[in-house]
Amino acid sequence: MKLLSTDSVSCYGGRDDGWNEAVLTSCPSLRAGCQPAPWARNAHLQNLLTVTRDGLASTPSWDLDERLVMPDGGTVSIQWLGLAAPQGTPVVVLLHTICGSGDALRRLVTSLHDELGWVVAACNRRGHAGLPLTAPQINTMGSTADFRIQIDTIARRRPGAPLYGVGVSAGSGLLVRYLGEERDRARIRAGVALCPAYDVPDAFAFVHPRYDAYLTRRLIGFFLEPHRTMLGAVTGYDEGLEASSILDFHRKVFPLAGYDSLDAYYQGSDPMTVALDITKPILVINAIDDPVCVEANVHRHLAAMQTLPRMTLAVTRYGSHCGFFDRPLARGSWSERAIAEYLRTAHRLL
Predict the structure, then answer these.
(1) Dihedral of the CA atoms 248, 250, 256, 261 (nearest 10)?
(2) Nearest of 176, 166, 189, 182 to residue 92 by alpha carbon
(3) What does DSSP say about strands 163-168 and 188-194: parallel, antiparallel, or unpaired?
(4) Secondary structure letter of residue 270 according to DSSP
(5) Using CA of residue 124, residue 127, residue 132, residue 133, what is the dihedral sign?
(6) Pick from 239, 246, 268: which is nearest to 202 by CA?
(7) Which of 73, 223, 243, 258 has the smallest CB count inside 10 Å?
(8) 143/56 Cα distance (integer angstroms)
(9) What are the pLDDT digits (tens) for 269-297?
(10) pTM value?
């Protein structure tokens, strides 16, 4: 069901009409949409602003950088901010981008912590955030097995605290995958998927050619080249070094994620194979001018997404890929405000 349509944003909802009405009523940013100044409406400029604004932002003074060793010897971490908050304070579980980390999302970390007053737990995947690769396995989309251990650790350190998830770009895929696999058992009460790619097998085929070439080089330089000692003997490593696109990269490196076939990798990693099993509330944010997670992804899955019980989808005219800079001099972030409003609303309603 389309809930709202303006020049700036279109909002769609799932089956729960009462939830849809309550969310839109309590989230003025969703109703308004992202409205950049005319000079800041170019999608490529929005991406440049993301790089420059992130580069100028201060890294959070983390209260704790907690490393966790997985059953196979792999290493992940949780970066904590706000641990001095009273027990029972909600926790935002933040999942980073494809080559990112909690540090790289410092603007969002600081914004959510300051706006909500909640604890932030940034979950870093294998090989990210300066973590050594201590087992011969790595997955660009993340591992729900690793993430469950991170969630268990968060729950033990903050017993009784309600957990809310925010996934950014590839991190949204891991969040959706977890929520779909766990269904009603999910410890995360509600989630936000910012600029998701939707299905791994198809979505990467639509990436803007220049971004595709750039990101393919980044994937090779981030996941493969620094880890030759650990990964070099694994099938798929040498093939991945020759990848010509993001889609080609994933088709070649699936053995590095521990899968015997490409089909098995998709079944175990693609968010859309389980997305329609989600029972928890979720907000999905996309921009029409996103050159990485493109508008076509939204419309190919829109009807299916609207069968979810408490799904809210906001499709903005502007914002590009995880940019959404608005206000004078493009110093504000519409998506940060929308996410904070939604999490506060979900916490109140639940």
Answers:
(1) -90
(2) 166
(3) parallel
(4) -
(5) positive
(6) 246
(7) 73
(8) 31
(9) 999 999 999 999 999 999 999 999 999 99
(10) 0.96
What is the edge-to-edge ordering of all strands in the sheet holding 311-316? Answer: 2-5, 9-13, 311-316, 282-287, 188-194, 163-168, 91-95, 119-124, 75-81, 64-69
- The pLDDT value given to residue 114: 96
Answer whether residue 330 shows pLDDT above 90: no
Which pLDDT value is given to residue 201? 87
SS3 assignment, position 12: strand
Q: Residues 150, 70: contact at Cβ < 8 Å?
A: no
* pLDDT value at residue 292: 95
Distances (CA, A) of 252 to 261, 265, 271: 10, 11, 19
For the segment 247-265, the average pLDDT, to the nearest whole number, is 96
For the chain, the average pLDDT equals: 96
Paired tokens of 165: 């998830």
Once rounded to an integer, what is the mean pLDDT over residues 51-59?
Answer: 86
The structure tokens listed for 299 are 């419309």
Read off the tokens for 150: 């991170």
The H or E element spanning position 287 is: strand 282-287
∠ at Cα 96 (320, 183), nearest 5°?
Answer: 100
Beta bridge partners of 67: 77
Cα–Cα distance between 48 and 295 in angstroms, integer? 20
Query: What is the pLDDT, as a whole number, of residue 120?
Result: 98
Tell me the per-residue pLDDT of 222-255, one tens digit each, with 9 for 90 and over.
Answer: 999 999 999 999 999 999 999 999 999 999 999 9
Position 149: which residue type?
Answer: I
Q: Which amino acid is at 221?
A: G
Domain 2-201+275-349 classification at class level: alpha beta
Per-residue pLDDT, averaged over 174-191, amounts to: 98
Ranges of each domain in the chain:
2-201+275-349
